[in-house]
Each structure stands twice: as structure tokens, then as C-alpha cells.
Design brief:
Blueprint (H helix, E strand, L loop, with lengths): L15 E6 L2 H31 L10 H26 L1 E5 L3 E6 L5 E6 L5 E7 L2 H7 L1 E8 L5 E8 L1 H21 L1
Antiparallel strand pairs: 1-2, 2-3, 3-4, 5-6, 6-7
Helix pairs in contact: 1-2
Amino acid sequence: MKKDTRLKDFKPDEHIITVARKHWFIFLVEIIGLLMLFIIPFFFIPFIAIFIAAGGGAVAVPPGLGFFFASLWALILWQMLFARWTNMYYDVWIVTNWRIIDIDQKGFFRRNVATLLNLDHIEDITTEVGGLFGTLFNYGSVQVQTAAASREFVMDNINSPRKVEQIIRKAQEERLNLRGDQ
């Protein structure tokens, strides 16, 4: 059974060629940063206990207070992890045989959807892979410049940017050939 790749607002002969997302390595770096933040309370709680004990124990601290603040910290970081994952997962480029749809997730409940209505209007596609990790893991930026001065389509840290550029160029070429045949 063939999977239906048409959405509700697609034209009858329009189909999805590729869906591009950010590279997994970018999310991994964010997770590592959050894990380092997660460890912070477990280093500070023993130092605070030593500091209180060295002062003669003048301040009475309930035994569960450190656990409460460490749990609160973990809950906040869990929410930050979920917010990062949501933004990474829902930031997508959808390339069809007619257009490019750029969905930019901004937080949990807001997104910006921009559409390049016709592949014929693409003037330039720029691909940039920079740095050691970008080269090793094959991620970078793709920028599509249109004839309209108001909008550039840019997706940073996209997986396989050269492949996405080739797909867009091939779809544009097929679209131009189709238009020329009519």
C-alpha cells in the first residue's frame, strides 16, 4: 500500500519530495548542556551542608529542603529539555514538486509557516557547511533566495545540506521543464 504524502491544502498533483530537519548532533549538544546544568545542585548541596556545619550549625535547615530544591531544578530542566525537543522536531522544511514550506516552531504554542509558492521564483540556493563538527557530521545551512525582496528561506544546522540543495534544484528544474512543455 502506497503512503499518501498529500496534505489537505496541497494541489491534486503535488507531492512531498523530502522533509528536512535539523541534525541530531545539535540536539545532542543541547542535551549535554542541560545534563551539565542538572549536575550543579548535587555539587552545591554538600558544600552548603559543610558550610552550615562549619558555622556551628546556627541555621536549622530541614533535611528535605535540599532534596526539594534539587527536584525543582530537575523539573525545570526536564521542561527545558522537552521545549528543546519540541522546537527541534517541529522545525521542518517540506519540499514538494511545487513549493517549499518552512515551518519554524517558536515555543510550544506558536509557529511561523512560510511558503515559497512557486519553485520558479528561486534565484539562488546557498549551502554552507562550516566547522569541524559540521564537516564530520554533515550538517550546515541552506539558504534559498527568492525573487521577492521580503523573504529568504534559511534553515540552520540542517542534516545533509548539499543533498537538500540538490533535491530543490532538481525539483526546480523539473518544474521549469513542465512549465516549458505547456
